[in-house]
Amino acid sequence: MTTMKSLKYIFAAIAAPLLVACSSDDLGPSIFPDVNDEPDSESYTYKFDKWLNKNFRDIYNVDFKYLMEDVEADMEYNLVPASYENARDLALLTKYLWYDSYKELAGEDFIKSYGPRILHLVGSPAYNPNSGTETLGLAEGGLKVTLFKVNEMDLDDINMLNEYYFRTMHHEFGHILHQTKSYPTDFNLLSTGRYDDSSWQSKQPGYVASLGFITPYASSQAREDFAETIANYLTRTPEQMDLILWMAKQGWTTGSDKAEGELEDENANYYCYYYKSPSNPDTNVYFLYSQEHSYKNYRVGLVGEKGEYLTTVEEVEAYLNKMKETREIFPVEDKDRVDGYDVIRQKQSIARNWFTDQWKISFDDLRDIVQRRQSGFSIDDLRSEVESIQ
What we know:
The chain has helices at 24-27, 46-60, 84-106, 108-114, 158-180, 186-189, 205-210, 222-235, 238-248, 313-324, 340-359, 363-375, 379-387; strands at 2-3, 13-14, 63-65, 118-121, 126-128, 133-140, 144-147, 271-276, 284-291, 301-303, 309-310, 329-331. The chain is of the alpha/beta class. α3 packs antiparallel against α12 and α8 crosses α11. Mean pLDDT is 86; it is low at 1-28 and 259-263.
């Protein structure tokens, strides 16, 4: 047996669950009614602080915290504050890509009623040495959402922004919504017996897709599966979603000779194609494995025999056709007895119907708005909102 080597990437954990969010009426006109939180006109951050008050506090009853406060941070982590520039830009994008997307479709009162009351930014990652993961976001009681790694944001890469911030925001808001109005139990039944809360970190996206999960983290628990279904459908482009669905149709193997349980090797790579070894026709050479993302390429992809990183179905098919020019290649037989493609689509359908029935919102229209906004924003135009504020 011969296999191709890979570099492991671990998807970061998203803390959950959330409790039901309170409405703005429950909390009153301000969450800090007895505190004078008007910005200091002599401060370097005066315009930004005033913009935050105008666009988050006054409209949505939200306290947007970007300065490091010990009481707001988990003391178990070694954390640093977010830089002013990155905090400003992420605040602008949070409003434009998250709040305004829901506002455009459902009106201002929707996210005002159900959104979190505190948004907290931290500059550094929150690294979990015991599990080898980074915490992307924390959601506490439906009232507070913390985002990490703010100092590493790249405004020129929407895939990076989604990986670390906006998929997290949609994921956590999905928790708030489903714990306000429960999603159908039929969703949980689609993957009964296949959730694994202890070792999802080691699983690759192609393998879990074949089992009906949109991401490895979705395979941890049903409620995370539902939130991941929402967040990924909204933020991933059609090309990215098509690649995940392509992977869901494949058979996957570690390349071991085990007849049973071969896909349970936690730290193994999973391959979906092979060819016969030229020197030993009885030996299979396995290739084409999946990753959450490669170094500075924040898209789910497939890795070819020579390290090629393939992020669309078109690229994968072109790569396989090229391989066929020099050797006969074979798809790995699908032995898991799960139609991963169909399960993922059923989960998306349940989420779609839930948005329609429970929230009177079109899931597809929301996705169209998010996709349009994330593909066409100007950070300079957004920054001008801060600079021009009176």
